[in-house]
Amino acid sequence: MYESDLALRLVPYVAGEQPKNVKLIKLNTNENPYPPSPRVAEAIAAVPADALRLYPDMDATPLCDAIARVNGVSPDMVFCGNGSDEVLAFAFAAFFAGKTLCAPDVTYSFYPVYADLFGVDYRTVPLKADFTVDVEGLMQGGPIALANPNAPTGMLLENGEVRRLAEHARANGAVLLVDEAYAAFAPHTAIDLLSEFDNVLITRTFSKSHQLAGMRVGYAIGSPRLISALKRIRDSFNSYPLDRLAQAAAEAAILDTAYTAETVRLVCEARDDCYNALMAAGIPVLKSATNFLFVKADPVDAAPVQQKLRDAGILVRHFKAERLKCWLRVTVGTKADMQVVTEKLLAFCKSV
Ligand SMILES: Cc1ncc(COP(=O)(O)O)c(C=O)c1O
To answer: Checking CA distances to 266, which of 16, 102, 197, 240 falls within 20 to 30 Å?
Structure first.
């Protein structure tokens, strides 16, 4: 047998389709519909080709400094990786391997995959009937992983509840991982907890709010102790996760705070307009703090609605799991695209 038992056993994460047909309105993987800040292209162009001979800065120092400044933390509290997926993978290895981890079910479907890869005993706690997180249920005496806002529901857990989870984990000598991939679209984040809790690790991404999904940049913020554990894992896997162009692009993107604020505002407005239109028509939608909407498209199964949308040139995500199969996850596009999408959703979804 050529393959290891591990390679044979793993059930990989299934990413959303990346279609060849560029004419589709692509709302299936929560990318940002706007281009990156103009400063990103300038920063990439300013990297001399000759510099690419040399390995990049393994710690992405100027980028970590910029992230630290924008978030009001010290640079030794920041770690950068090749997309937040990689940062999450390192976190699973650094803080959860060999332990029992609790996470909500439903949540980001990469967590069970990393758990399997890194030998984590992964326990799920069902969301409540209204899709809110069962905070008490997650308190089982060990580490906890929480996507907040959650995916694919889009719902945000209040800071007071996140704090309770942080306290519980700390009392048990464990880490609370808060995956804030979508935090830029939410009214609050857990960042203030970091001055108080050395066991809280926040992960973020440049893929959603900073228009750089194609660059693969993510980061973690947490206590220097947690950051050095992440570095030990990184340096046992790949010391240079971010190339020079990605570092330059991400630094320019995070420093252009005005551009991010404006594009986040446009996305949130389009999101709320679509939410209001669907709700007014009796189509259930969860209250979203992200750049996507979770829409109950059909009382039995939303797959045919997904197909009708596709036939109309709109790509959205459907999950087959029993609890999710009536719903579609619709990434928020430009205002113009969302007018078309809202019209089609109103035509194809069943109201209750
Ligand atoms: C909750 C959540 N976390 C992390 C990621 C990974 O983002 P990336 O690897 O692009 O940084 C995603 C991507 O969809 C996500 O939905």
So the answer is: 16
Rounded to whole angstroms, what are the CA distances from 188 to 33, 182, 191, 232? 23, 11, 9, 31
- Ligand 1 center to 152 CA (angstroms): 11
Q: How far is the CA of 43 from the centre of ligand 1 (A)?
A: 24
pLDDT at 18: 85
Closest ligand 1 atom to residue 29 Cα is 14
Q: How far is ligand 1, taken at its centre, from the CA of residue 347, in Å?
A: 30
Which residues lie closer than 8 Å to 200 by C-beta, 6 or more apart?
166, 169, 175, 176, 178, 190, 193, 194, 222, 223
pLDDT at 23: 83
Stretches where the chain sits below pLDDT 70 are none
Which strands, in side-by-side order, build the sheet including 327-331?
A: 292-296, 327-331, 317-318
Q: What's the pLDDT score for residue 157? A: 98
> The domain 38-255: what is its CATH number?
3.40.640.10
> pTM for the full model?
0.97
Token pair of 19, please? 């279609």
Among 241, 239, 327, residue whose Cα is nearest residue 278: 327
What are the pLDDT digits (tens) for 205-218?
999 999 999 999 99
For residue 179 and ligand 1, the question of a CB distance below 6 A is answered with: yes
Distance between CA atoms of 197 and 174, rounded to whole angstroms?
11
* Phi, psi dihedrals of residue 72, rounded to the nearest 5°: 65, 35
Tokens of 234: 């990184």
pLDDT of residue 22: 72
Rounded percentage of the chain residues whose pLDDT exceeds 90: 96
Domain 15-35+258-348 falls in which CATH fold?
A: Aspartate Aminotransferase, domain 1 (3.90.1150)
In the chain, domain spans: 15-35+258-348, 38-255
Atom of ligand 1 nearest to the CA of 86: 9
- Tokens at residue 86, please? 């990689």
In DSSP notation, 153-221 reads T-----HHHHHHHHHHHHHTT-PEEEE-TTGGGSS--SGGGGGT-TTEEEEEESSSSSS-TTT--EEEE
Q: Which of 67, 80, 207, 216 has most ligand 1 atoms within 8 Å of its beta carbon, as the pocket-test mutant?
A: 207
